[in-house]
Write a structure and sequence with these properties.
Length: 115
């Protein structure tokens, strides 16, 4: 894991999915992403596929997935992701609503950019 003054970043793995579901399966998180909140099984399936990496047809892509925790408390904030291709990085973050508005997305995206 990488530890900064405020956050801990670690590669996301299958063992994190139950805890991540508790943090992210909230209507507010998915309001602008999907028509409805995914089921627990669909949530885990989607992230398991992301952790497996890009499909063979996605030549030249790299998928990065990180778990984000608060430094000091180890409380899970959410996750960061990036799809790297053609000298670009498409980035996203999903954080638990209780952590919105605290600058964690800015700090996380700054860390990811440096990474």
């Amino acid at each position: 894991p990488t530890v900064t003054a405020r956050l801990i970043f670690e590669p996301l793995c299958v063992e994190h999915l139950d805890e991540l579901a508790i943090a992210l399966l909230h209507t507010a998180v998915y309001e602008h992403i999907e028509d409805e909140l995914p089921s627990l099984s669909n949530f885990k399936l989607s992230l398991s596929r992301a952790l497996a990496g890009p499909p063979l047809r996605a030549v030249g892509q790299t998928w990065l997935n990180y778990l984000v925790r608060q430094a000091g408390t180890n409380v899970m904030v959410g996750r960061l992701e990036a799809t790297v291709h053609d000298s670009l990085a498409e980035v996203a973050f999903l954080f638990n609503p209780s952590h919105w508005g605290k600058g964690y997305a800015t700090a996380g995206l700054s860390w990811l950019h440096a990474e």
